[in-house]
Write a structure and sequence with these properties.
single chain, alpha/beta, Rossmann fold, seven-stranded parallel beta sheet, 46% helix, globular
């Protein structure tokens, strides 16, 4: 699919990015859809996307062209992603020479992007939103524990090769590296990537979508008379989502009216079935509402019925360098948050004063939630601080302005 939309005009010269992405197209993640599709476009940065289909969305791409080659729906076809990306790059280049080529979270395609950028004489940039190699290594270790020797060998070889290619070819060849958080920048700097060549772009929100005054509370009889606590996000074993149930069990013992609403889906039917089994095993059916996938407007309708929002993120390399969205979303909606101490969340809590930061352990989490449920004045004070903080630091308008300045600086320095 090719979307042939003109690049936006502006008072200054429009910059054009040819952007190869890992997530399925059309994009649904806010840090692509909102940041590149809307915020950066307003600052004179146009973006042509290259990648595979499979998101299930049919929305057009407003910021330039979109070149969808191949699909992520099939694992067999997804292994061909570098070849699809090469074809997508060729199609995109028919529109003209971009000002830079950027690759997000792809390693083999990162090499392709670096080569094509060199041939065109434009900068090559890399965007790392997730430690992909460490993700491969986690998968390797998982299949080893399952006793799947051949699968372990395949994942081990992939992880080893990916680490070498990323560290020796992709990152050293990038004029600039955009990362998810300051913690990720520090982590990569310790591995030899110059700190001056990195910019942290944390997750933000579109304040127009997360304006509480515009959101209709959901009408669900199951919430009537309950003290609603919210988890807005994905359910997965890797995220230790059963931790939420341990917290709910403790809350039930002190507040029988509590209802934990888990508004989100799992990456597979197996993971969702696992979560339902865990709920049943703890006999929490009357205290946990697992909604499954919801349209965003409906999920936000549940969110504004909540008194407290939870954001437990497991500690470790995979998540310590992340920038979780859910805590910032709670704050934007005026919901006090209880989050654990991964670096980005701790920073948000410390700077905003709009939530409580505790270790990811059931008792401290439950204690913090009960403190907010039992102290209305404290909860109201924290709720007021959240929207103001988000509007001053974590909107995509602000992030887009900051990132556009970096692009302009990089491209002005280009030969």
């Amino acid at each position: 699919m090719d979307s042939q939309k003109p690049h936006p005009a502006g008072s200054a010269r429009t910059r054009s990015i040819l952007f190869v992405v890992r997530d399925a197209l059309p994009p649904i993640r806010a840090d692509v859809l909102t940041l590149f599709g809307s915020a950066l476009r307003r600052h004179g940065v146009a973006t042509d996307l290259v990648g595979q289909g499979g998101s299930g969305d049919a929305a057009p791409w407003p910021a330039g062209g979109m070149h969808v080659v191949g699909s992520l729906d099939s694992r067999l076809w997804s292994v061909c992603a570098p070849l699809w990306d090469l074809l997508g790059l060729a199609r995109a280049l028919r529109r003209g020479r971009p000002d830079c080529i950027q690759v997000r979270d792809k390693i083999a395609s990162g090499v392709l992007g670096r080569v094509v950028a060199a041939l065109l004489g434009v900068p090559f940039l890399y965007w790392m939103s997730f430690p992909i190699v460490e993700g491969y290594e986690t998968r390797r270790d998982d299949v080893r524990r399952q006793g799947r020797t051949l699968a372990w060998l395949g994942h081990a070889l992939r992880a080893r090769a990916a680490r070498r290619v990323l560290r020796r070819l992709v990152l050293p060849g990038a004029r600039h590296v955009f990362v998810q958080s300051d913690a990720m920048a520090d982590w990569l700097a310790a591995q030899g990537v110059p700190r001056a060549r990195m910019t942290a772009v944390p997750m933000g929100v579109d304040v127009r979508l997360f304006d509480r005054a515009r959101i209709a509370p959901v009408s669900d009889a199951r919430l009537a008379g309950r003290r609603v606590v919210l988890y807005l996000g994905r359910v997965a074993r890797s995220r230790r989502s059963d931790f939420l149930l341990d917290v709910a069990a403790l809350l039930r013992a002190h507040e029988p009216r509590v209802l934990l609403v888990i508004a989100g889906d799992a990456p597979s039917d197996d993971e969702m079935a696992w979560m339902r089994r865990e709920i049943a095993a703890r006999r929490l059916q009357d205290h946990v509402l697992l909604t499954g996938w919801l349209p965003q407007r409906v999920a936000l309708g549940y969110a504004v019925r909540a008194e407290v929002g939870l954001s437990p993120i497991p500690r470790g390399t995979l998540f310590d360098v992340s920038s979780p969205t859910k805590l910032v979303e709670y704050l934007a909606l005026g919901i006090p948050g209880v989050a654990n101490d991964i670096p980005d969340q701790k920073r948000v809590i410390d700077e905003s004063g709009a939530g409580l930061c505790v270790p990811m352990e059931p008792v401290p989490f439950a204690t913090a939630v009960l403190q907010l449920l039992n102290d209305e004045l404290l909860a109201a004070e924290l709720a007021l601080r959240g929207p103001a903080y988000v509007k001053s630091c974590r909107t995509y308008d602000i992030l887009g302005n900051n990132v556009a300045k970096i692009y302009n600086q990089i491209l002005m320095e280009s030969p």
